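Help!! Second protein's tokens look totally different from the first
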Amino acid sequence: MRAFSCPTCRRLVPFEATRCLHCGTELGLDWDRREIVALTGRHRCANRELAACNGLVDERGALCASCSRTRTRPADGDTAGLAGFPVAEAAKRRLLFELGELRLPVTGAGTAVGGLRFDLLSSAGGAGGGVVTGHADGLITLDLAETDPAHRESMRQQLHEPYRTVLGHLRHEVGHYYEAVLVPDGSPEQERTRAVFGDERADYQQAMDRHYAQGAPPDWPERFVSAYATMHPWEDWAETFAHYLHIRDALQTAAAYGVRVDGPAVPTTDSAPLRTGPVSAAPPADVNEMLDAWLPLTYALNALNRSMGAGDLYPFVLAPAVVDKLAHVDELVRAAASERLGTA
């Protein structure tokens, strides 16, 4: 995420800002300019109260570019769902902003009809048949129970996951969407992707049954970014794509705030770089440059977390096979971005 400042007094304000705490200027997010701007001459999104949205619109009562992509929200009487709705919408705004930074299409040629859409519903609120988090033809469904920290932590422990967040869920599900967009059926990209991730034509139901009956193979860390990624090539792609979004967004944030690592204060023999120098605001040239900036940050951030008695902020190890998968995703994302620039 980029850093933002108040257009009036230039004090730092967060991405979610609605008012500058220093000078009192009313603020909002201009999706066209992709900046935090003064409210003057604009209106707040119709979801300002319901979803704590800070998006701006031209017409009173309209939905912003993010909220308009939510197809279904909790019913007015769904107390549990409405409590979690602002949390999910906040994560969705961050997701959509990052997709824009990467120049990935959310609608238009090559995407599902209607583009990317969201159903944000709560199984706790009595949605008929329950709510299953997932993706289908551009429609992402999220069970708003995931916005409850106690529920989410319980599920994380039950499934032996190192990491589980609402934003992480959305990044995973949007990965399924972009596999169809970036790797069209019958394309050369599909054959290359199969060579990296495996053949997605393998029976998904059988793969899922096997995974939940037997678990991940013991050597999964040598080939996959997560245990869940071992279930099927589709899930391997989605988990890797989500991880790619984690890294790109965190690196952009580090660059925006001038975060750098100068190395530990003791001599080491580590082969990996332990200093970043200034993290560039420009996108990394390739995966190697990305990881040269990313890995030293993770060492330092994990050490800081442990100093606070918390678990690792980044509880992952990237094996060479995983780096190859990240490189493949990076190549496809860059190609899509270049194509959009060429047609702009």
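Here's the second one for comparison:
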Amino acid sequence: MLFERLLPPGLAVSPHDQYTGLELADQARGERPYVVCNFVCSVDGRATAGGRTAGLGGAGDRAVFHLLRTQVDAVMAGTGTLHVESYGVLARDEEFARIRVVEGRAAQPWAVVVSRSGNVPFEIPLFRDPQSRILLYAPQNSQAPRCAARVISHETPTGPHELAAVLRSLRQDHDIRSLLCEGGPAIFTALLLADLVDELFLTVSPMLVGDPELGITTGPPLSTHRSMRLIWALEHEGNLFLRYATTPP
């Protein structure tokens, strides 16, 4: 599989060559990890088809999805996304674990689970897999039951800056320097509102979905519009693979 380079122009490149060696952790500044987000959406901006992302992404998007997981110390997803997508161990194949080790990271990234309500889907495969390493931020009465995964629990911070406090804990307590957020739209919007997003990887799938599917953001409007700087644009079988850096609000 090769992706055509549209911007900057160049020779076709494999997903492996384009999405490894990103050195995201080296860009961490201050007291939180460097935060990148990854989404797929339709041409009309919908983040799901039939309630799930699987109907949007093809082989190229699946490759990007798994390769980005090799580039970070931890992967975060909202509890709704964890449940709907039935998350399991994050580096699923030996090849992805090998990439992580070669680049100096643990074979498995930490999974970061954040819940205000305490409604955590402990039944999903992620908690049943002994390879999984989970950092759980949940109310005190919603700690993980006995399970095969390694789970470290923290009480969810309270107040208007709870996500910033979670990210500060990730950096200070667990040396997480790079964090990948895989959604859903609510947690992505919350990160944007708190100015905690550094980059966005976006796959635009060549299909129209229509309502009532979700977009990649939802909930309260942003206080100011966010400008994005396009780093690269790739194409494969009509799918666009975009990498953006956020600019200050």
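Reply: Different proteins will give different token patterns, so don't panic. The first helix runs from residue 15 to 18.
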